[in-house]
Design brief:
Blueprint: H1 10-19, E1 32-37, H2 44-58, E2 63-65, H3 72-81, E3 86-91, H4 92-97, E4 99-104, E5 109-114, H5 118-125
């Protein structure tokens, strides 16, 4: 069976680039987990969380959201399991105020930030 093929040897190319001092941009973006807290009888929290999730993904932030309706404690454990760097917590009070809680999982610090300033803040820290 006749055939034609081409192989470039990706490992060899990477080694050659390394030998020449070429730095490849391999930085992985830090991931964000969205957690919801509180009674969501009308589904407003979930709708806003999904809206925020889509906005984050459109802005090239790796983002996940709880889909099982777990407690906040379970959602925080899940965020830790998947290695999320930040958790955006959206509760009924935050929804009414137009804010979110942003928790830095590495430092254990948390701050309340307005929904409008969230992406500006994320751009500065992520």
């Amino acid at each position: 069976m006749p055939g034609i093929g081409v192989a470039i040897g990706l490992e060899r190319v990477l080694l050659a680039l390394e030998d020449q001092g070429v730095q490849l941009p391999l930085k992985k973006r830090e991931s964000i987990f969205i957690a919801t807290a509180g009674d969501d009888v009308a589904g407003d929290l979930n709708r806003e969380a999904v809206r925020l999730l889509l906005e984050l993904r459109r802005s090239d932030y790796p983002a996940e959201k709880d889909l099982l309706g777990r407690s906040l404690k379970s959602q925080m454990k899940q965020a830790g399991r998947i290695g999320a760097s930040y958790v955006i917590i959206l509760g009924t009070n935050e929804l009414q105020r137009g804010t979110v809680l942003l928790r830095d999982m590495k430092k254990g610090e948390q701050l309340e930030i307005s929904r409008e300033r969230l992406f500006e803040y994320l751009k500065a820290i992520v």
